[in-house]
Hints:
The chain is an alpha/beta fold and 385 residues long. 41% of the residues lie in helices and 15% in strands. The chain is built from 12 helices and 15 strands. The protein has helices spanning 17-23, 39-58, 72-84, 100-110, 129-136, 158-164, 185-190, 240-277, 303-313, 332-336, 341-344, 358-384; strands at residues 5-6, 66-69, 91-95, 115-119, 142-144, 169-173, 193-199, 210-214, 281-282, 293-297, 315-316, 318-319, 322-324, 327-329, 348-351. The strands form 4 sheets. The protein has a 7-stranded mixed β-sheet with strand order 2-8-7-6-5-3-4, sandwiched between helices. Strands 9-10-15-12 form a 4-stranded antiparallel β-sheet, covered by helices on one side. Strands 1-11 form a two-stranded parallel ribbon. The two termini are 40 Å apart.
Amino acid sequence: xxxxxxxxxxxxxxxxPSVLEAMAPWLSARFGNPSSRHEYGxxxxxxxxxxRGIVAAAVGAQPSEIIFTSGGSEANxxxxxxxxxxxxxGLIAVSAVEHPCVLRPAEQLARRGWALEKLAVDADGCIDYxxxxxxxxKKPAIVSVMAANNETGVLQDIPALAARARGALFHTxxxxxxxxxxxxxxxxxxxxxxxxxxxxHKLGGPKGAAALVVDxxxxxxxxxxxxxxxxxxxxxxxxxxxxxxxxxxxxxxVCARAENAEKMLELRCALERGLIELGARIFGLDAERLxxxxxxxxxxxxxxxxxxxxxxxxxxxxxxxxxxxxxxEPSHVLLAMGVAPIEARGAVRVSFGxxxxxxxxxxFLNALREALSDLMKLTAVAASR
Length: 385
């Protein structure tokens, strides 16, 4: 079976074997419903509660502040829509580089009478503070700014932003940062962060398990009403196996975080040196970024074309473009950074995991060099006709 080198860890990660082992009993013999009162149910409830405590400890939160959801998208929607349902329509402010699962619910609120401000970023993808302070003066009711961008890896100064937006309910999508850099909800909460989103499958855990970490003083309206699960905020029988896996991957990620971050940063630097030699532009180069993420474009080369050629050469990376049907659109993140649409369409993202190696990085650079050479030959042939 053809198995390309995997350089797309910001999209999802392989499940760690020890995580899969921890999950296995809850997919077979330990099948109880956590809401049942007999021993099968009590065992499942203990497993969910143990995982809740582990996830909480990984981010400096209390177990009672962890609301399990099916994914980061649900958690983001739960906060934005759940908070809005408890308020009169006001101002919601979200960064222009948010994931669509923050942007789309904010736009839904705008269609229901809320005012929406998309917070501008500078050329490196960092929040424009002058513009942000102007919005903060308008007293927004809800603010959401992601901790680390999924496309560029650019980090935002969440404590500084939250402190300036006092009075607003402040949320941060921390899906990409968990397991790569330290994050402490208690410290963030002290400066004004009320909620934070996490997801298991970005750090060696299963898909289908995520969490909204939410300050106990914040009241949300549930998106899914029913039997009172998850403190009444998320009805539905808990996905016990996936939640157990979430706890297991958090435990592993915290233990190995510093070592993995150092290794991935070295890989990132090696890749960037090679990309610059090939004439590529690296987006967010001068900003603080995740240690594992590189977003780049080569002049006059379509990102989708390059991704396809690299895949055939044995390297799995992603395009920075979001495609809808047959009409490819350039990344909204790069456009917000002032990147020209034609260059934004050339974006390619590489995101490392702990298992990647320097040999793989060198192989990737060689494959990229070959792909670019082939594309230039095709361009030259087409131009000569």
